[in-house]
Amino acid sequence: MFNSALSYLKGGRSPSQPTKRSSLKPGKPIQTNYASNPVPIPDTFLTTPPPDAQPLTISQIDFSTSVLPEYAGCYAVVLDNVLSPSECQTLVDLAEASVPGAEENGEDPWQPALVNVGGGYEVLQPDYRNSDRIIWDQQVVVDRLWERCLAAGPGLWEKLGVVEQDVVVLGPSRSGRVQRWEFRRLNDRMRFLRYGKGQFFRTHCDAAYREPGKDIKTLFTLHLYLNDSKQTVGDEAELEGGATSFYSGDEKRKMDVDPKAGRVLIFQHRSLYHSGDEVVSGIKYTMRTDIMYEMVPVPEDTTVKEAGEEKK
Question: 232 near 282, Cβ under 8 Å?
Fold first, then answer.
């Protein structure tokens, strides 16, 4: 019933140009290989509060009292003012500078967002995913972003530092043994998205990315909004629409999280059916990455039932 946005596969790190629009044909798989220019990151970027910084706030979404009670127990949280508006603009500028050859050749660094179909291939599917994208691999920036998120308070780390025996997030244990996943880092692969009028990302569930040969995978999506919308700040914003909307399975009920500069939305990959709603006017800028975990050993004789008793 649910579409699944397939997890991307990281290509090699040799410089490569973004795929030109003229060479893309809907439905035709192409081999992709993303790399980034080395971009100097200012020492003060995301480490020193800028003049336009505002107090960080955090609000967990309670699905049980929402229009989507079937998602009760699923985890989603909204953090506001993680970045200031000026920091959001700087981040977009840095991302644009990361695209090999774009500035030198006078080309638009933003190119159509593709859908991963596995094996290092992607496909243009504009009736499902319609936006432009920059992919930038940069661990320093995401590490600093995560430190900003943690400043919201200890509750975030208490939930996301370790995921163990959480059927809603992990799914049922096939072996009956406890799975314990510990936080390792944010994924360094940042996917910047630009949506113009009429563009969208249709309903889907995010899929996990696994590091080859390791028990490391993503469990949560981290979505950073980079500009304001009319829904959040009024007519001073140019952007209208473009919410991240959680949907019921029949798509008759939904809950919106509206774009706001510096807002972060974190939510579990599993089960949460959502979309990037159509932009009515203006341009929407966002960045998406993931939270990565490593599975760690638990005593071989520990069962799911025993672990539950220990937690009581």
Answer: no
- In the chain, where the domains are located: 43-111+129-311
Residue 222 dihedral angles phi and psi, to the nearest 5°: -120, 120
Candidates 3.30.1380.10, 2.40.30.10, 2.60.120.620, 3.40.50.150; CATH matching 43-111+129-311: 2.60.120.620
Torsion on CA atoms 84, 18, 111, 42, rounded to nearest 10: 10
Q: Give the pLDDT mean for 299-307.
A: 57
Query: Residue 12: pLDDT above 60?
Result: no
Instruction: Please say if the pLDDT value at position 11 is more than 60.
Output: no
Distances (CA, A) of 229 to 237, 239, 268, 279: 5, 5, 24, 10
pLDDT tens-digit readout, 236-263 = 999 999 999 999 999 999 999 999 999 9
Query: And the tokens for 209?
Result: 């990315």
| Phi-psi category of residue 267: left, alpha or beta, with phi > 0 → left and psi -120 to 50 → alpha | beta
Quote the pLDDT of residue 5: 39
pLDDT digits (tens, 9 = 90+) for 135-150: 999 999 999 999 999 9
User: CB of 191 within 8 A of CB of 288?
Assistant: yes
Count of Cβ atoms closer than 10 Å to residue 305 Cβ: 10
Judge contact between 262 and 84, C-beta under 8 A.
yes
8 A C-beta contact, residue 292 and residue 217: yes
**Lowest mean pLDDT across 15-29, 44-58, 252-266:** 15-29
Name all contacts of 294-299 with Cβ < 8 Å and 24+ positions apart.
Answer: 294/181, 294/182, 294/184, 294/214, 294/215, 294/216, 295/179, 295/180, 295/181, 295/215, 295/216, 296/180, 296/181, 296/182, 297/180, 298/164, 298/177, 298/178, 298/179, 298/180
Contact assessment for residue 230 and residue 239, using Cβ atoms and an 8 Å cutoff: yes
User: What gap in Å lies between CA 291 and CA 217, rounded to an integer?
Assistant: 8
